[in-house]
Amino acid sequence: MSIDFNKGKWLNEPASWRADETGLTLTTDEKTDFWRETHYGFTRDNGHFLAFPTGDSFTAEIRVQGEFRTLYDQAGLMVRLDEKRWVKSGVEFTDGEAFLSTVVTDGRSDWSVAQPFKELEDFRIRITLAGGAMRIQASRDGSFWPLLRLAPFPAATRYEIGPTACTPERSGLTVRFSEFSIGPAVTTDLHDLS
Length: 194
What we know:
Jelly Rolls, Regulation of enolase 1, mainly beta, ConA-like_dom_sf, UCP022704, 194 residues, 7-stranded antiparallel sheet, 0% helix
């Protein structure tokens, strides 16, 4: 089912955003991020996240558009139980290029990056969560969905999911989110990329 962005609940609402029937556009505040401890030694929980409640299993998809040019510029989808258990996946700019990035956090954060395709100014992210397993996929066209990550995630009766954007090194990244949907968990084979 398609989601009305005006019905979400902000965690760290950005100073500048607007939503209508076609999508959500936001501009990041200064030095925003989600991270817990690993390598850097700090915890940050001040990134922008527009949360929508879900049940114990679901598939969510969103289209993300932006110009990611500064170190750690990022945008995508977040699944969250609380400040110590969450996942964010989408684009992140690092080492001079945009990558597809996933951070899985269960007490402490981990980080993985991949580049199944390089054109990351307009792409889609899909997250499926069921039975304590999270499947994360990305797509350029909404038809072909390579796997980014398969990870355990704590089973719960409800989660929050929605768009997220952060700029740890600056402010002023404008991101457009559209085509956001949440539905029953996709049950296709892991290697079915449709």
